[in-house]
Amino acid sequence: MSNDSIIRSVSEEDGVVALTYRTARDTAAPAGPAWTIDELTLKELESLTGYADGQAPLAHFDSRSAAILCNGWQSWSASRELLPDERIHRARFIPKLNIYTDRPGLPVERRTIVSHFLTYLRNNDDYLVLVSRNAGSPPVSFRVDRADGGRVQILLYAEGQSFRSGEPVADIRLIRRSGFFAVRDALKKVFAGFDLFSCLSFLGAPGAPRLVPGGYESWYNHYADIDEGLILADLDGLSSSPNLVKRYYLDRHKPTVFQVDDGWETEVGDWSVNQKRFPRGLEPISKAISEQGLIPGLWFAPFIVAKNAPIVAERPEWLLRSANGSPVVAGWMPNWGGDFHCLDLSRPEVQSYVEGLVRRAVDEWGFRYIKLDFLYAGMLPGTHASGGPAWRGYEETLRRITAIKRSPSGQPVAFLGCGAPLENSFRYLPLMRIGADTKEDWDPFPHRLLRHQGRPSALMSLVDTVGRCLLDGAVFMNDPDVVFCRTANMALTRTEKEAVASGAVLLASQIMFSDDAAAFDSREEAAFTDWLIDFLDATAGREFGVRRLESTGTRRSPLAFRIFSRDGIMHGILNLDDSPVTADGPWNHGAVALLDRRGADGAFVSRSASLFSENQ
Ligand code: 9PG
Predict the structure, then answer these.
(1) How far is the CA of 281 from the centre of ligand 1 (A)?
(2) Cβ atoms within 10 Å, residue 534
(3) What pLDDT shows up at residue 53?
(4) Among 21, 211, 337, 409, which one is most buried in terms of CB atoms within 10 A?
(5) 261 CA to middle of ligand 1, Å?
(6) Which residues contact 310 (CB under 8 A, 6 or more apart)?
C-alpha cells in the first residue's frame, strides 16, 4: 500500500477478487484532481488472482507486450486497446477540444496508459481486468505503466470530499479469465446486483432473446437544421417507404423510438421551444409520433449553457465558476458562440431546475425517451457552492432526473446518456452512447488533422464500439450511434456502410437511423436495406465478441478485428484499416459467407466487414 490513510482489504467470490478500500481515519481527499490510493505491481495483481479457479497455473502477463485497454473518460473519449507502440492522441491546434474528452486534470499521457473505470491487460486470449464497481463513490482511473515489470496506480477524482474513518472509498474488482465471453460473464456478475436493465425492457420486443432498442433520430442528416415541417415529413416518410425502421421495427410491431435531436430549443441553455421552428410547440409533434405508434424522444443538454443564454444574466450564481470567479469553460462550439459554460450541480435549486426541464418534457410535452447529452460538463472541477466532490452533485442530479419513470398516463420513460462520464452514470443511464459521433463520411478532414478523439467520424465511432464491446449487456446497453442506409448526403461507400452497420448490429445494442425516409432511393438504398435486414435476421439472438487481429508480421499492427459468435458458428473480420488484411479462419475451410469483402487476392479489403457461418 502506498497510502497510509487508506486500508485495502481483499476478498474473493466466484473467482473475482474484490479490492475494497476504506479510510483508516477521518480523511479529506487531497487538493488536486488525482488522489493515488494504491499502487500494485503486475506481479502482485497476478498473485492476488491466484485465488481464481485454483487450477493449473495461468499464463503470465508481460506488461511490455500485452494489449492494454485505454477506456476513455466519457462517451466521446477514445476507447481502444493499445499495443506497445500505440497511443491515443490529444487534440492539437484547438486544445479546448480536449475539454470534451479528458478526465479533468488527467489527460491521456504519452508514457503511461490512463484508463477510466475499466482496464485490462491481454495476452492472446487471457485477460487481467480491473474494474470499479462504483455504488456511489469517486470515479476511479487506472494508470498503467509498462516499465519495470508493470505497475498499476489507482487514482480517484474526489477533490472536495471528506471521509469519516472507515468509510468506503473504492471497490475494485480484479478478474482473470480466458476468452472474451468469460470476461463479459464475470463483468455481468459483478454488476448484476444493480439490476440495470429492467427499466429498459419496454424498448425491446416482448420475448426476444436480446434487447435491441431502435428507431429514428434527427441528427445525422439534418443536423441542427430542423423544424416542424421537416420532422413531420420524416415521421410520415418512415411509414410510407420500405426503409429500415419500417421493415425491421414498425412492420414487426417492435417498440420504435422517434427522437427529435438538437435544434428544437431556443438556445443551448434556454430550453424553451424555438418558436420560429416549432410555432405550435412540441406537444403536437409528440402527439403525432405517438399516434403513429412510436415512442416520442427528445434531446437535451441540460448541464451546459451557451454564453448568450438568458440564464447567464438571470442566474449568474448558478454557473459553475473557477477559483478566480469566472465561469468555467465547459467546451467550445463555434455554432453556440464559442466557449460555453455549465451549471453548478451541487446547488439543490439547480438540481430542481434541471429536473423541472425534463419533467416538463415528459408531463407537458409528452416525450418518453430523453437523450441527455453533454453530461461530462456536470463533473467539471470548480468552486461548487455546496462543497463536496463533483461526482456527488452530478449523481444527485441524475438521480432526480431519472426518478421520472412514468408519463402522466403511466407509460414508462427511458433515458439515453451521451457525452457522459461512464462510471458515475451507469446506475442511472444504462442506455449509453459509448463512442464518438458517427458521420456520413469515414474520417474527414479537417477534423482528422486536429486529432480530436471525439470528432464525428465513422471510423472513430467504430473504434469505440469495438473498444467498449465488453461492457455491452454487462454495464450498459451500448448505443453505437446510427447506421446509414441512404445514398443522398452520403460520402461513405457501400462497403464502409456495411462496416458501420456490422459494428452496430454485432457489437452493440441499439440500432438508430437518421435517414430521410421520404427520399428513399428505390434502387441502391433498397438493396442496402435488404442486405441489412437479412444480416439482422441471420445474426439475431446471437452474442458476439471481438478481438484485435493478431499481428501478421507487418511493420505495424493493422486496425483490424476478429468477430465471433458465442456459439462458435459465426466468424468474421472487421477491417477498419486503410490497407487490406489477411487472416486465417473458417472462411478458408468451407464456411458460408453472409458478407464477404475479400478481394481477388483473398485479403479483406480496407474499411470493410465480413462474416461467415459454419451453419449449413
Ligand atoms: C447535437 C449532437 C448530437 C450527437 C451528440 C452531440 O467532441 N465533440 O466535439 C462533440 C460535439 C458534439 C457532439 C459530439 C461530440 O454531438 O453526440 O449525437 O446529439 O450533440 O448537438
Answers:
(1) 24
(2) 12
(3) 52
(4) 21
(5) 10
(6) 269, 270
